[in-house]
Amino acid sequence: YRSEKPPKVGRDIEEILNNYILFSLLWSIGAITEEQSRKPFHEFILKLVAGQNVVEQFNLDPLYPFETKAFIYRLNDPPSIFDIIYEPEKQVWIDWMKLIPPYTIPKEAQYHELIIPTPVSYTHLTLPTIYSVQISVVAVSLKKK
To answer: Does an H or E element contain 123, and which?
Structure first.
């Protein structure tokens, strides 16, 4: 089927696609970034989406020439790109920890039974569940020196 008129697309489609591309980049390549590389990766991504010349700034040798172009996005200057997730319904980036319901300590809980949700503890609580249903995942662990 071929229409004579191009399909109507909302005026925000470029921004929406940019945010999905950025989300995919952060949660794929960013997911396997080791702890010591996170800050440089964070800085690189922010400069890339701002349209700065990252080839010269980071002394890159790309296989193919390209021009950087500023993305249309709404990151709202996050402290870390590793702490945000794209909310497509609202078209905004939010701190992914805000998606976790508030924690209330059960009155009868013993001290040794408490697991307070933090980015680290939440990851360790969800990984066993993911493994038990045999979903393929990439897990990054910190190596102690």
So the answer is: helix 119-132
